[in-house]
Write a structure and sequence with these properties.
Alpha-Beta Plaits, about 35% strand, 5 strands, about 20% helix, 5-stranded mixed β-sheet, alpha+beta, single chain
């Protein structure tokens, strides 16, 4: 049996984030992408910048128009926790570059686009500069997709 649409969406998100590199036209080269979060205090610097995406909350409702009487529209929140490091405590440029790159990778991905109705970038919540030499933030994306309830989402 094929993986659920939700599972396929996360696979596409992971692949998109793993593709962030300066050689691919981004400002940053991401060195670590994983669904398994690691506290920044345990991160090896050779693995930074890092992005930890997770499929989070999801709302669902039946829709009258769509793929049939059993059509469900779901809005899935993807949360990307990101880390950058600078020994001189000057992380602003690294932070803004990676924020832009994560948004570009997720919002402009053909494999993801083939699975979804649309995607909307959401809130960005930062550490507000409270951690010396590090910048840590979370970016949200709301992904709307449809599926048949007889197959499951």
């Amino acid at each position: 049996m094929a993986n659920s649409t939700r599972h396929q969406i996360m696979d596409a998100v992971l692949t998109a984030l793993e593709g962030i590199s300066t050689g691919a036209g981004y400002q940053t080269t991401v060195k670590h992408v994983s669904e398994n979060w690691i506290p920044y205090t345990e991160m090896e610097l050779k693995n930074v910048p890092a992005v930890f995406p997770v499929d989070s909350d999801e709302s669902k409702e039946y829709v009258a128009i769509g793929i049939g009487a059993d059509a469900v529209e779901a809005v899935l929140t993807i949360l990307c926790t990101c880390y950058v490091y600078d020994a001189k405590n000057d992380t602003r440029l690294k932070r803004t570059n990676l924020m832009r790159d994560v948004e570009k990778a997720i919002c402009n991905n053909a494999a993801l686009d083939a699975l979804i109705e649309f995607i909307e970038p959401g809130d960005v919540t930062t550490d507000r500069g409270t951690i010396k030499d590090w910048s840590i933030w979370e970016q949200q994306f709301q992904i709307t997709y449809r599926y048949s309830s007889t197959l499951g989402g």
